[in-house]
Amino acid sequence: MTRLLARHRGFSLIELLAVLLITALLASIAIPSYQKYIHRSYRTEAKDMLLRIASAQERYFSAQNRYGSLRELGITDARTSHHHYEVDVESDASQFKATARPLGQQTKDRCGSLSLDHTGRRSSSASQQTRDCW
After folding, report:
1. DSSP H helical segments within 65-128, as ranges?
2. Which of 36, 106, 119, 124 has the smallest CB count inside 10 Å?
3. Rounded to an integer, what distance in angstroms lies between the CA atom of residue 86 and that of residue 46?
4. d(C-alpha 115, C-alpha 107), whole Å
5. What mean pLDDT is predicted for residues 31-39?
6. Angle at 96 between CA 73 and CA 118, to 5 degrees
7. Extended strands (E) in 28-120
8. pLDDT of residue 118
């Protein structure tokens, strides 16, 4: 009887390979899903910054009767808090367009650059539907 117990201790190589295969399969499903979630959260940061810039532009326009540059709006750092997007503003007396360009790993995001103009129109540089990105 002790001989039988001694033979059945531990795991066989096939059992270990099966566990490794199942773990690899689960990781291949979970990691891309997690990366999509991360890209979406950083995209939310960029949208928030674009909306704050649009609000600052409207305040500036009501005081100066024209739209301003980032410097004139008092924005010194043109990157989102985690530095995954860089924001640029093109403006003149009657219109502006703020664009958030992805940086680093965020360039793999399916939405690409996000834009917001003086009319409130939202757009994306990617082929995706704008409503899916905004």
Report:
1. 70-73
2. 119
3. 8
4. 15
5. 89
6. 105
7. 85-91, 96-102, 114-117
8. 94
Residue closest to 121 by CA, chosen among 131, 111, 112: 131
Whole-prediction pTM? 0.76
* Residue given tokens 């650059």 in the structure block: 113
Which residue, chain included where needed, has tokens 């007396």? 93
In single-letter form, the type of residue at position 93 comes to: A
- Which tokens in the block code for residue 120? 């409130």
Q: What's the pLDDT tens digit per position in 61-112?
A: 999 999 999 999 999 889 998 899 999 999 988 999 999 999 999 998 989 9
| Cα–Cα distance, 40 to 123 (Å, whole number) | 16
Query: Which residue type sits at 7?
Result: R
> What DSSP state is assigned to residue 79?
B
